[in-house]
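REVIEWER CHECKLIST
Item 1: Sequence provided? yes
Item 2: Single chain? yes
Item 3: Sequence as submitted:
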Amino acid sequence: MEIFLMITMIMVTGLIANVIGRLITWIPLAFIQIAAGMLLSLIPPLAHFQMQPELFLLIIIAPLLFNDSQNTKLSELVKQTKSTFAVAVVLAIITIVAIGFVLNWQFGLFTLPLAITLSAIVTPTDAVAVKSVTISRQVPTDVMQSLEFESLFNDASGIVIFDIALTVLATNHFSFGNGVLNFAYVFFGGLLVGVVLGALLLWLRLNLLTHNLGEATLLVPLSILTPFAVYLLAEHVGVSGILAVVATGMLHAYQQARLRLTSTRLQVVNKEVWTILSDTLNGFVFVILGLLLPNVVISMTQTSVALMPLCLFIAVLIYAMMLFVRFMFVRLNFAGHNWHGRESWLFSLGGVHGTMTLAMAFSLPLTLGQKAFPFRTEIIFIAAAVIVISLLVPALAFPLVLPAKSSAFTQDELKQTRASMINYALDRLNDENYDSRIQTMVRDNLRSQNGFFTGNQKELLRLIEGMNEANADAIDAAVQAGILPPEANKITKRLLVKYKHGHLFHGLWAVAQRVWFTKRRIKHIQSMPDFAERVAKIKAQHHELLDQVKEILTEATNTYLDEERTAQNREEIAMVHHIFIRRWSQYAQRTITEDMQTQLNDAYVQAFQFEYQYLQNQLSNNKISQGLAKELSEQVSSSELVQFEAGLLDGEA
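Item 4: Structure as written out by the authors:
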């Protein structure tokens, strides 16, 4: 119960910090979250909060790095393979060795293995921290990509050298050959394990999709569990769990790029779930950092308060040395970028450190042999100080040298490109062998919406769910009151999206029963002499019933939307009303066979694929900007969501 209470308090604190961050935009959100965590440490249950590094890496760092890597642009990573290896491995090793030797040379209290241990702790950059100080600034694309790729891979470099240094401290023996072999095994072994496990998981996902078992309720939890399973298995065989998770995420990024529209519902749900999970864990990172900082300072004052000024000086010196090494490394073109002074300084300042550094510091053993680990408290204090300095310096410097992020396109450009994209998709769709009615449905619907919904998706989903419930309740009430026959409930259930996604076997059984019953009924009716008159009468009764159902549903929908209408959700209300009309017209105006429904699903999917294809072609030919392509890509995804919720795509389209 105590652990649950602590987690809940940290989550609530993160949410409050996010709200404050939206109100106070001139302060980086990371600093607000750190401050909130420091205030949280004043509450007794959390006053002595302790980090468990292994658990922290597994529960927070692994899923965050997995999400970052599965959203990585693989084409850019392939182009920068050499430079990424240079900054994530070569630069990391040079930095660790250089700082270690300087600390050992200048400060007698640090033996060389202990100095290497400290430098290995403070060297890895943090992907979450990098984003926190650059989120509102327009950082050059090549610099930002290099920082992101570096932070994905250099954690392993620091961890491996950290473990080697601890081994030397414990045994007083170091073998260069064994150290190199161990580094290669842990680093490349982690990548190999991640690729193998990632390939197996992708094979499983593809087979589930192939056999129509790729429901979001199955594959999204599988996606969430992936980084935890990969990390644990990699660590079990003694390789880098962090790199294994990153490699698996890269494979998922490759699959998503190829199978963007394998399942509309799956892609939308998976993206939303990971966005929420990532935002929550990002808040966790800095709240926990703020929660730990007071404990670090208190421990320092209790054990060696006289060394605090010296430790602060060492932290400043370490940060200055890291800046210098990073600057010289890229300025001398060792990373293959051929950057000038400005880009080199931006890359140097962008090497922000975060909770990975603190996690490594807290993983220092309490004892070494039969004695207490030397200067453990001081090392943790220095590491915490380096984190704060690395966050503070770019937070102050970047606003002075970098412009704020702005839209890379005008609204006219957005409208014109969007119209061209829709026309391209519809022209390509005309070349396909779809039934003319199917093509008309897709064309009219996309053009009537201009292809997109740009409002608040969460509000839209809430209103759609509310409309569905209001519709079902209205029909139930009418049936109970004797206004409508029980058959009206069946019509409503077939109409509403939320009743369409049953269990696979339940659905097959229901279809089998319906076919069997229908065949018997038709055979019985056809044997009667007044068959044609009976058919005409049934049709007339059905149309009359449809009119009655439509009238009740329309009144229920309008009443619900009027009650929910506010000044802020007008666009969402209009879209829900449009969805109701479109949904009803497709149900009532045609009798669509299963084959036609399949064609309709395929046609929508094809149209969206053509839109993505158009954006990719325009981007490759430098006819539109990266920002414009991203905006339109997100709008296409929103349009997919609208079509799905309108019932125009079934659950696995």
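Item 5: Key structural point noted by reviewer: The beta strands are 367-368, 371-372.
Item 6: Recommendation: ____
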